[in-house]
Design brief:
This protein has about 190 residues and is mainly alpha-helical. Helices cover about 65% and strands about 5% of the residues. The chain has a two-stranded antiparallel ribbon. The protein is elongated and about 65 Å long.
Length: about 190
């Protein structure tokens, strides 16, 4: 018998490996960059948004407060005329990477903790590497990847962006699974 606490090393080490891999993906390989586009009239759009001074949050265009209103002629016209979209607004100021990187590392640690927990409650000590790899890797992939899919289904996020996030999730899951398989209690 072993305890969840005995998995502290694979939990922390896999979080570090995922953090490093995500840094390489976003700072060296940069294959996500092609998913972001600039509006031709960016300054005008920024000025129009700034004029209303909306609070940070999530906004939708066109706004419809109740699904039954979508059938009105006015709303139908707005949908036909466009644009349709979602806007995320953050507080003004130069974005600080420090708090985001700390939050991301904490997230990778929580994913590793839960993936390890699933392995802990389903697998005994001395489990073969590939079995640990399969169970922990599946849990990690679900945590890192499947949450991206509803964004394409409901928000119109490009499937190409979701596929890239799923590729990232496979990489992160493989790193997590490999670390747990390597360091699983013997």
């Amino acid at each position: 018998m072993f305890s969840l606490a005995s998995l502290w090393l694979p939990i922390l080490l896999s979080a570090v490996f995922v953090f490093i891999a995500s840094s390489l993906i976003h700072m060296v390989f940069k294959y996500h960059n092609s998913e972001y586009h600039k509006l031709a009239n960016e300054d005008e759009v920024r000025e129009a948004i700034r004029k209303d001074n909306p609070a940070p949050g999530q906004y939708v265009l066109p706004y419809c407060s109740d699904m039954k209103d979508m059938g009105s002629e006015e709303m139908k016209k707005k949908y036909v005329d466009g644009p349709l979209g979602f806007i995320l607004l953050r507080p003004n100021g130069v974005p600080g990477m420090g708090s985001s990187l700390i939050s991301w590392f904490l997230f990778t640690t929580v994913v590793a903790l839960f993936a390890g927990y699933i392995g802990y409650v389903t697998l005994p000590m001395k489990t073969h590497y590939l079995t640990v790899f399969r169970v922990v890797g599946s849990a990690a992939f679900m945590a890192y990847g499947l949450g991206a899919i509803p964004g394409a289904i409901w928000m119109g996020r490009p499937w190409s962006a979701v596929i890239k996030e799923l590729v990232d999730a496979v990489i992160y899951a493989l790193l997590t699974a490999g670390t747990f398989g390597w360091l699983w209690p013997r």
